[in-house]
Amino acid sequence: MMSELNPFIKIRRDLHQIPEIGLLEFKTHAYLMDYITALPQEYLEIIEWETAIIVRVRGKVGAKTIGWRTDIDGLPVSEETGLPFKSIHPNQMHACGHDVHMSIALGLLTYFSEHQGQNHLVFLFQPAEENASGGKLLYDAGVLDAWMPDEFYALHVQPNLKVGQIGTKVGTLFAGTCTIQAKFSGKSGHAAYPHEANDMIVAASQFVNQIQTIISRNVDPIEGAVITLGTFHAGTTGNIISGEASLTGTIRTLTPEMSRLMQERVRQVAHGIEQSYQCQVELILEQGGYYPVVNTEKETTALIDFMKDHSKVDFISSPTAMTGEDFGYLLDKTPGAMFWLGVDSPYGLHHSMMSPKEEAIPLAIEVLEAFLTMKIN
Ligand SMILES: CC(=O)N[C@@H](CCC[C@H](N)C(=O)O)C(=O)O
């Protein structure tokens, strides 16, 4: 006889099929709301804001509030896992594991809807972690004002760790990010008459190569930083010189000072390209709310001690990673910690074949039920 599928793995598979890009998570929002409103409501209060959902589990005393945050958006990736429950939305995929994050949060909320603690527990289902800093948007709109947690916690799946491994560190866990958009405008023309045109594929390619030297020549190698350009669009066909090119990318740094330095150098390089290729470069650099994720000492040390003592957890001391996370913005406002949850996938985050091991879901729910129970009592 086939064993029954764990209900939160089933939920993960449902959510995996309907990934949506940040701020457009309408089906995801509806799925989450259907589930949440079907739970026992005695201790629950719910706020909806755009596609976000905030649920408070009222504590008996409510002297403080502990927060748990999950993100809910997907990525513009065409899924290639071949899974029977693969995305039904073309060119959209939960390639960053937010389906797993949501099902764990629902598992925890299910438990706490029937196990009231002394203190309040707030669950934030947050949109647009990947593209528009949903955490910042809702914080700045005052959505969390009445229920702002005294401590905030969140996890992120980590394909490089095994199921059962949990990793984090005190201090900077993830980098701060700044997005790059660059549009190059020159003059199109016939492939055979380059002297009568102004080729933006050549100009933009120089920009791509030159900004990489910022990493090798301007950044202190001990501190480190990243520049990645993820898109490069130009041209229409092989025998027409392209008069336009557009690039998008991201700068990753560990300090605001380094971010400022790199942004300044990117601007200078863009200006130099304008001079040497006699073209226009429209450059937009945007930091949004992707501050470095800085885990606070007291809360993270307590979390690490808890994980080290838990029989089902193999705690791993994690190095700082150059991933970004807008949870950094919320941790700038209130103490707390983010940590990696091992899901053991041969393909990494943002890959079209990323496929987390689902056993991590019930395990995380069990461990985090105990952690949050300790926190609210
Ligand atoms: C965990 C993760 O993969 N997060 C994203 C966050 C993106 C931030 C921003 N939109 C950017 O592109 O820099 C990441 O790419 O690290």
Question: Descriptors for this entry?
Answer:
377 residues, alpha/beta, Aminopeptidase, Alpha-Beta Plaits, 2 domains, 8-stranded mixed β-sheet, 4-stranded antiparallel β-sheet, 9 helices, 25% strand, elongated, binds ligand L5K734KM, Peptidase_M20
Question: Could you explain the architecture of this structure?
Answer:
The longest helix is centred in the C-terminal third of the chain and has 22 residues, at 256-277. The model has no long low-confidence stretch (mean pLDDT 97). The radius of gyration is 23 Å and the shape is elongated. The two termini are 41 Å apart. The chain has two domains: 2-170 and 296-376, Zn peptidases (Aminopeptidase), CATH 3.40.630; 175-286, Alpha-Beta Plaits. The chain has an eight-stranded mixed β-sheet, sandwiched between helices. Strands 10-12-8-13 form a four-stranded antiparallel β-sheet, with helices on one face. The chain has 377 residues and is α/β, with parallel strands linked by helices. The protein has nine helices and 16 strands. Ligand L5K734KM binds next to strand 8. Ligand L5K734KM is lined by residues 96, 130-131, 156, 177, 179, 250, 290, 323-325, 349.
